[in-house]
Design goal:
This protein is an alpha+beta fold. It has 2 domains: about 200 residues, Transposase Inhibitor Protein From Tn5, Chain A, domain 1; about 60 residues, no CATH class. The protein contains 14 helices and 10 strands. A 10-stranded mixed sheet has the order 3-2-1-4-5-10-9-8-6-7, with helices on both faces. A hairpin with a 5-residue loop joins strand 8 and strand 9. Helix 2 crosses helix 3 and helix 10 packs across helix 12. The longest helix is centred in the last third of the chain and has 27 residues. It is globular.
Length: about 375
């Protein structure tokens, strides 16, 4: 229902819930369902994620072309699984999200409603990241985060866990290239648009002297007087500027995740559930969102995206449809064919000269359904 209607309001879901009972009874059934103890992230979601990660790492169930392409994915280009962390607010709820970058999007891994407004503290950041570490016991992990997670203490903790990281910093960060020398702020470096620098083995925080870390500095060049207003200051333990910038750009996937869960997808703003039911609803959304994204990815790799939605044109710099959108549109197409099969066949009979095209379309639809 979530994938077909893209709405999570309990009143709307009750109106389309397929049970032959009164509306209020359907609503109470859904309310009781969202209180089931089985709807737990660690009990239900983590086993699914572990299974999916094993499938991706082993390549089982993929043909030769898909196995070859799997090696070119952004999270495997440098041998890392990319985990992006961020915080967002939905109708007064302060939510901390840990996600796995997948192409231009990110898949939810773990989330929690914070009991306060504003930024998360170091203790919370450690606790939520620790929860997902068992999922990647045999894999290289790299953590991406924006300026909310700028603390060198957080970077030092990630380093102690053997994790790679790329954390954007505020320009007020002080660092030194050698213990015993004066500290300088990033702001005082005077970086200009079009410039980039890389500092190796620096120490941060005058009081603590944390490090050594590396610093990647980059300010995109302006074009026709347009460009970013601020530079990127990235604290990392990666060894070169190019890799640090390429991987940090992947952090945008979690912003796409938030957009798809809000007005761009499931319209989370419409729900009025309490916190317990809201967390359970987030779990269901995570499953629906991940399935749609993975199905859209499979559809694109099979060359069937032209049957589902607009494809990339020669002047486009980015894809017209994301994997998430392709997955949803493919499911809608299948629902429509199931809902009006007689009408579809009647329309097909009016165009006998297009029979070969229709056969190809039916074959494409069967492949899309196999991927779901």
């Amino acid at each position: 229902m979530l994938q077909a209607h893209r709405k999570v309001s309990l009143s709307f879901l009750s109106s389309v819930f397929p049970q032959p009972i009164q509306y209020e009874s359907r609503k109470r059934n859904l309310q009781r369902f969202l209180l089931l103890p089985q709807l737990s992230i660690k009990l239900l979601w983590f086993p699914l994620v572990k299974y999916w990660l094993r499938q991706e790492e082993s390549g089982k169930g993929l043909n030769r072309a898909l196995r070859r392409h799997r090696k070119k994915l952004s999270f495997q280009e440098f041998g890392y699984w990319l985990v992006a962390i961020d915080r967002t607010e939905w109708k007064g709820r302060n939510i901390f999200m840990v996600s796995l970058v997948w192409g231009t999007h990110a898949l939810p891994l773990y989330w929690e409603i914070l009991g306060h407004v504003g930024n998360s503290d170091l203790r919370t950041q450690k606790r939520l990241l620790t929860a997902i570490l068992p999922l990647f016991k045999r894999s290289k992990l790299l953590v991406l985060a924006d300026r909310e997670f700028h603390s060198p203490k957080f970077a030092d903790w990630l380093n102690s866990k053997g994790l790679s990281f790329a954390l954007r910093q505020k320009n007020s960060l002080h660092f030194t290239e050698a213990i015993g020398t004066d500290y300088q702020s990033l702001k005082s470096l005077g970086l200009q648009p079009g410039e980039s620098k890389f500092y190796s083995d620096v120490f941060c925080n005058k009081e603590d002297g944390l490090g050594p870390f590396n610093l990647a500095l980059y300010w995109k060049r302006k074009y026709r007087k347009k460009g970013p207003k601020e530079a990127w200051f990235i604290l990392t333990n990666l060894t070169d500027l190019k890799t640090a910038l390429a991987l940090y750009r992947c952090r945008w996937g979690i912003e796409q995740l938030f957009k798809d869960c809000k007005s761009g997808g499931f319209n989370m703003e419409d729900t009025k559930l309490n916190d317990t039911r809201f967390i359970a609803l987030l779990l269901i959304i995570a499953i629906a969102y991940s399935l749609a994204t993975l199905q859209g990815y499979s559809t694109r790799q099979a060359g069937l995206d032209s049957y589902v939605g607009k494809i990339q044109e020669h002047k486009d710099k980015s894809l017209r449809q994301s994997d998430f959108s392709l997955g949803l549109y493919g499911q809608r197409w299948g629902y429509a064919m199931d809902l009006w099969p007689e009408l579809a066949l009647a329309l097909i009979s009016l165009k006998p000269h297009k029979s070969l095209c229709f056969q190809r379309g039916f074959f494409a639809l069967s492949l899309i359904r196999q991927a779901s």
